[in-house]
Amino acid sequence: MSIEIVDSVEDKSFDNYVTIKLDDSLYLFHLVYLRDNCTSEKSFHEETNQRLIDVFNDIDLETDLNGTPSVEGNELVVKWHDGHISRFTVKWLLNHAYYPSKNIVKNETIKFPSRISWDKTRFCELKQSKDHFKNDYNHIHDDIVKRNIFHEIYQYGFTFIENVPVSIEATKEVSEIISIIRPTHYDTGVWDFTSDLSKKDTAYTSLAIDMHTDGNYWFETPGLQLFHLLMHDGQGGETRICDVAHVLKLIQEKASKDESWQETLEILTNQPIEFHQSGESENVFFENRYPILQIDENGELIQCRWNTSDRTSMLKNNKFSVNEIYRAMARFNDLINDSSNSVRFPLAPGTILVFDNWRVLHARTAFNGKRRLCGSYLTRDDFIARFRSLVFKREQWLESV
Questions:
Q1: Cα gap 36→43, rounded to integer Å
Q2: What region holds the TauD/TfdA-like domain (predicted)?
């Protein structure tokens, strides 16, 4: 594929550009963009891949953005007025083209697998199959098993790891394979607790806990959660989980047909809700800037924040009427507790449950007897970074940034 220069402006600082033709398609690149992203060895560190040339501090933005574009072989070459030379291959130009939008080539080689939502029926089908959620602790360091664990957490929002030694040490090992353990005021590492109210939170009781995500009163909510039941000599204490990605689709479907549900969707995705954790006298947490459901431009779930136990009593400066806010929350609550949208099962010593705390709600039934649970909060960024390294070859990724 050859490069043809169609048009260029070379002496107007930030407004300088070059228009090129590649395979009958036109692409415009501003020269400030090309100077900022010069691919020469002098511009980026060989090992860290960080910029070495800072266009905002190292060059004169009024004169050094002036350059003369030309074509040499299959490369676009820009000779800058300060003597620097930049070269761009056809592959680089296609990967980084940004205008016009109709000609942008999507880079499918670095696309994450699609997320797969589930209800009770789909969950049971997956759990009963031989191909899902059969991760063995004894092979957890094998690349295939590790990759499968990450894939299932990312795609389905959860996974199970079986045959785990019933110990804090093994729980910590599994946690650290998946991500970095996030310290909190509950514990600085793997937490280990029973119903003794050693921390002033209902998790530290034998009471039933309804569907929720953890840490809504924090700006940095836990990305993932990991549960490992160490022992229980009584009854109850079963776990319930629900995929909010599936519930969101149900709400969006209802909203497409009913104005009342359209308002419910607007409230759930736009009305900030206040959450707090005020049980500990030395630590009081509060967050009030986010709605129950954060979605992206395609209507896909980014994050759910929900725990009716931790909501404050304040509903001031609202974008919607209070009665409609309550109607929306009630509808959401009905859907996440609908038995067709959630599943219920007992945790068992030796089996670890890991789930996406931004996507999967969890609950616990009341129990009696002594019940000892350990687990961890895991950072989301580090999980995604490790998953990215498992999915893509390093060269693929570097070509896309």
A1: 9
A2: 142-377
Instruction: Report pLDDT digits (tens) over 120-143.
Output: 999 999 999 888 999 999 999 999
Structural domain count, the chain: 2
69 & 116 share domain: no
Residue indicated by tokens 């260029």: 8
91 and 136 belong to one structural domain: no
Query: 205 and 167 in one domain?
Result: yes
Q: Which residues contact 58 (CB under 8 A, 6 or more apart)?
A: none
Q: In what order do the strands lie in the sheet with 75-80?
A: 67-72, 75-80, 85-89
Total residues found in the chain within this entry:
401
Residue type, 321: S
Q: pTM for this one?
A: 0.91
Would you put residue 109 in left (φ > 0), alpha (ψ -120 to 50) or beta?
Answer: alpha
235: which 2 tokens?
A: 């009854």
Neighbouring residues of 320: CB distance < 8 A, sequence distance ≥ 6: 263, 266, 267, 270, 271, 328
Q: Could you tell me the residue range of the domain that residue 66 belongs to? A: 3-105
What pLDDT, in 10s, does the model give residues 342-393?
999 999 999 999 999 999 999 999 999 999 999 999 999 999 999 999 988 7
Count of alpha carbons within 13 Å of 174, Cβ hemisphere only? 36
The conformation of residue 367, written as its DSSP 8-state character, comes to: B
Q: How many CA atoms lie within 13 A of 391 on its CB side?
A: 20
Same domain, yes or no: 260 and 324: yes
Residue 77: φ, ψ to 5°: -115, 135
What phi, psi does 178 have (nearest 5°)? Answer: -80, -40
pLDDT tier at 108, thresholds 50, 70, 90: low
Q: pLDDT digits over 189-227, tens only? A: 899 988 888 777 888 898 999 999 999 999 999 999 999
* Band of residue 61 on the pLDDT scale cut at 50, 70, 90: confident
Establish whether the linkage from the previous residue to 346 is cis, with ω within 30° of 0: no
